[in-house]
Structures are given as structure tokens and as C-alpha cells.
Amino acid sequence: MNQGGGAPEASTRPSLEQRIQTAKAEIARRLRYVRQHHPEGPFTLAGLAERAGVSKRTLSHAESADGSNLTLETLLKVSYSLGISRDAYFLDEQVFHQVNEELETLRVLRTQRVEGVALRTASHGSSGTGHAPPVDRLSGLLQEILASAAKAQNELRDLPAPPGPPASIDDRR
Predict the structure, then answer these.
(1) How large is the C-alpha radius of gyration of the chain?
(2) DSSP, res 148
């Protein structure tokens, strides 16, 4: 029993070696995940290794369960090559999830943009009907809505302020 208030007994926490192996396994899992799910991927080992400026063998070892030859330099090269600026990506589960959410948003936006370009291209080819293509009509409607909103906002600014306490925090400044 530990009564001195010091460190807990060794049997109640994982050994340093166990912690190292767990960390390596988690890093390997995150590395495999980003290689397969990055918006610009999926990448082969060789493709990501070339992009990051590391050898395929180094990357393969880093992705293995034992994580042999894993260095901080390798992790930073990989994250930098993938546009991931948060150094803790491979080390911290919360950062890993946050960055993956950002990457998924980027993937969706890129997909939508490509689909939007494809729709505009297809609709311009079918403009022989004399009607505006659907994308052009939608764009025109959105422009009209934005113009109406700007006009309404300007008209509201010209109205006298009602008596009593200010209506918003911005008015109190």
C-alpha cells in the first residue's frame, strides 16, 4: 500500500513500455486513416512517401503495429505534406478528430464544387431552348435575394431608434 503520497504502485498503471507500444499503435492507426481518407487521397504508401519526402520503407514501418523507426520528423513531414498544420494530429485523439472533421468538410466542398462546375458545363451546352440554364436562373435568384436583403438592411438603418433600452449589444458600444 502506498501511504507516502508519492507515485501510485506500478501494478495500477501501464508500464512505460506498454504506454510506448499503445502510442505507436495509435499513431499507426491515425497514419493509415489519413492515408486512406484524405480529400486528395487515398494514397498508396509509395505515393504518400514520395509526397512527404520519406522512404516507403520508413512509412511502412511507421504504419506497422510496432511502429519501428517512427520519428517525430517523419510524422511532421507527413502532416506537412498533407496540409495538416496541427502538429498534434498524430499524437492527440481530440486533435485527430477535429482535423478529420475539417478534412471531411474540405472533401465535401471540393466534391460540390466539381459537381457544380459539371452542372454549369452541362447546362451551358443545352442553352438552345431559349431558356436560361437552371444554374444561371438560380444564380440570378440568389443575386436578387441578396440585393433585396441589402436594401432592407439599409432601410432599417435609416429608421429612428425606438425609445427604451438598446436593442442589441452593438448599440451599447
Answers:
(1) 27
(2) H
Handedness of CA 84, 68, 14, 25 (dihedral sign): positive
| Contacts of range 45-53, beta carbons closer than 8 Å, 24 or more positions apart | 48/78, 48/81, 48/82, 51/81, 51/82, 52/77, 52/78, 52/80, 52/81, 52/82, 53/77, 53/81
Cell numbers for 84, please give them: 495538416
Q: Provide the residue-wise pLDDT of the chain in tens; the chain has 173 residues.
A: 455 555 555 567 889 989 888 888 899 999 999 999 998 889 999 999 999 999 999 999 888 867 777 888 999 999 999 999 888 888 899 999 999 998 888 888 877 776 565 555 555 554 444 444 555 666 666 677 776 766 776 676 666 666 665 555 555 44
- Give the Cα separation of 173 and 169 in Å (integer): 7
Grid cell of 27 as nine digits: 499513431
Alpha-carbon gap, residue 53 to 138, rounded angstroms: 45
Q: Of the candidates 10, 83, 94, which has an alpha carbon nearest to the alpha carbon of residue 52?
A: 83
Q: Which residue has the cell 507500444?
A: 21
